[in-house]
Amino acid sequence: MSSRLSFQIVQDRPLIEVEVKPSLVFQQVFANNAPHLVPSTKQLFLVDTGATFCVIDEGLVANWRLPKNNPVIVGSGTQISAAGWRYDLSLKLQDSQGGSWIHSLVPVATVKPGHFGAEVFAGIIGMDIIKQAVFHLDGPSGSCSLTW
Question: Domain of 31?
């Protein structure tokens, strides 16, 4: 049986709500140590078939004090390149009907805070996740879906 997430095109871009948390291993560390709270944030992410991997604004996860795994250089349309870090995160893609698709360990690259400028999104869902699903874009209706 397949599952499906439906989402809309906003300002000519396919955007989906994503709940970001540390990877499952670090969720357990946070839960087992005072104050026993797992940090999280919900943000809009751009679904981008031209992006090799997922990217997030570093300002959203910087105060979580996660280990910085590897330095990365990210090329984008807004800047030629941006130096950041790779973090292991958990991403929960969500739609307005209550559906969700959880990825418990995703290496996510960061870009400097404010890198996306005035855009309405704070991160990018790249091909590392999209390639696991069928991505359907219906331009005339302004809707998108991921089926897996």
Answer: 13-133
